[in-house]
Fold this sequence. Notes:
Blueprint (H helix, E strand, L loop, with lengths): L2 E19 L5 E21 L4 E5 L11 H12 L5 E7 L10 H16 L6 H9 L5 H6 L2 E5 L4 E4 L8 E6 L6 H6 L12 H9 L3 H7 L1 E2 L2 H7 L2 H11 L4 E4 L6 E5 L2 H12 L4 E5 L6 E3 L2
Parallel strand pairs: 1-8, 3-4
Antiparallel strand pairs: 1-2, 1-12, 2-4, 2-5, 5-6, 7-10, 7-11, 9-10
Amino acid sequence: MNSITLKSRAKINLSIDVLGKRQDGYHLVEMIMQTIDLYDLIEINEKDNDQITIKSTSDEIPLDCNNLVYKAANLIKKTFNINKGVEIHIKKNIPVAAGMAGGSSNAAAVLVGLNKLWNLNLSNQQLEKIGLKLGADVPFCINGGAVLASGIGEELTPIKGLTKDVCILVCKPDLFVSTKEVYECIDSKDIDKRPNNKFLIECLKNEDTRQLAENMFNVLEGVTMDKHPVIQQIKDIMTNNRALGAMMSGSGPTVFGLYENREDAVKCKAILEKQFKQTFVVACEEKGVEVNG
Ligand code: ATP
């Protein structure tokens, strides 16, 4: 039996701007995304039958055709007329519905994995095109690293990312946020403060983490924070405990802080962990999906 296991990594946003809305309802964005070394393990086992089945260590995600890994496998099967089946096991570490693209990254791993398992010889560019049918973040998740994403998030310009020595403290409060609902609350015409992406990209280029951290901005943060003040509380705990800056990722509710000093990040993790189980200290990563081992 053929099988493959892949790391499927999460992302954080160092900025999000919303520039408008397409007629189909998708928002036009300009945002900086950075892969981090927090990952799910996606094990794909080929089966003799024609079925796609899913198992997971998490009870927070669907195990049927609503799971993004199911949709990814099904799309590959349909596009390339493949009659084989797979059992996909998702070992979840990335918080669910967190603003860290966990589902998109799992889907990206299945595309990369099946491309290898079934010798489809598709280029990453071809995989990105297929991935876009599953979600706007999927193309980014395939390659990962650091990018300026525009369009609906699928036009990717690689940029220099955070340096490996920057410690990222990630904290996901125990509440559910719907990405769709957050975007529905935002009208680009009413936004009065926006990130200066050009400046942020310069900061990354110059490895000036302090300036970067002080100027990160996410236009979605206010929307989610209005409903969930705990986001401000987590930001305050981080900045009062030596973070250079702290911000919500994606549509939330995950908050991350950037630290120059690992000891400080670990100390703050210990404080946050008392209240928020899903708290991690991680570094940035250059690769999105990677074959494990
Ligand atoms: P994004 O940052 O791309 O908006 P997110 O981190 O906010 O994503 P996900 O973890 O991808 O959110 O989950 C969003 C929804 O998708 C959840 O309600 C979840 O039930 C569903 N979902 C479907 N498949 C998966 C999967 N493989 N992993 C996580 N969530 C999934």
